[in-house]
Amino acid sequence: MAEAHEIVGRGHAERLVPMIAELMDGRSVSQIVVGVGPGSFTGLRIGIATVKALAVTLARPCAAIPTLQAIALAGGAAEASIALLPAGRGEIFAQLFSVANAGVVTALDEPSHIAPQKLFDKYGSLERVLWCGAGAIAQRELIENASAGKEWHIAPQPENLARYVALLALRRFRVSELVAPDALQAIYVRPSDAELPAKAKL
């Protein structure tokens, strides 16, 4: 019915709720969905806290959608889709999926936090791959250099990933795969810098 998309470098907490209010002016809310990561630690915490507050206040059901799953769906149908998301410090979050024409996304392994060069130790034996997401765009040269003799392609970057989060959520609402607000949890994959041992930070 409506959408809002804005790239915000900082100030997510200050901008998010006014954006929701502007978007929902005069509209009702039946379900609430949130992307639960992996991604920015601060962004995930702000988004999940906001959704928890809305869901409790409005007494609405929630759906929790993994970010990498949405990235794979945005890339399009493929037997092997690898969703990549920048994780900071030159590393990436990665996960392998299959994506059916009907929009069914199936995880084929667990999300990982990995150095780009290690991707090919893990996935280099795959002959046909659709690489998806901002991480794939950022690592285009590395992927292309490793693709000799293989059918590897890089999907265009979607303008608004929230659309695909919503599509996945709609499927979950239809089969009642819902989450209580107090049970919403972020998928961090790796510990935050504050949680890393002192030696690991050096």
Concise structural overview:
By secondary structure, the protein is α/β, with parallel strands linked by helices. Helix content is 36%, strand content 21%.
Task: Write the SSE topology.
Elements: H1 12-23, E1 32-35, H2 41-58, E2 62-65, H3 67-75, E3 78-88, E4 91-99, E5 105-107, E6 112-114, H4 119-123, E7 128-132, H5 134-138, H6 140-145, E8 151-154, H7 162-174, H8 198-201
Structure, described:
The chain has 202 residues and is α/β, with parallel strands linked by helices. 36% of the residues lie in helices and 21% in strands. It folds into 2 domains: 30-66 and 160-201, 2-Layer Sandwich (Nucleotidyltransferase, domain 5); 76-154, Nucleotidyltransferase, domain 5 (2-Layer Sandwich), CATH 3.30.420. The strands form 2 sheets. Strands 3, 4, 5, 6, 7 and 8 form a 6-stranded mixed β-sheet that branches. A hairpin with a 2-residue loop joins strand 3 (78-88) and strand 4 (91-99).
Classify the fold: give the CATH topology of the largest domain.
Nucleotidyltransferase, domain 5
* SSE class: alpha/beta
Q: Determine the strand fraction and express it as a percent band.
A: 15-25%
C-alpha-based Rg, rounded:
18 Å
Number of strands: 8
Uncertain stretches of 5 or more adjacent residues: 198-202
Tell me, rounded to a whole number, the average pLDDT: 91
The outline comes out as globular
Helix segment tally: 8
Give the total of domains: 2
In CATH, the homologous superfamily of the largest domain goes by the name ATPase, nucleotide binding domain
Largest sheet descriptor: 6 strands, mixed
Which CATH C-level class of the largest domain is it? Alpha Beta
Residue share in helix:
25-40%
Distance between the termini: 49 Å
Series of H and E elements: HEHEHEEEEHEHHEHH
CATH architecture of the largest domain: 2-Layer Sandwich
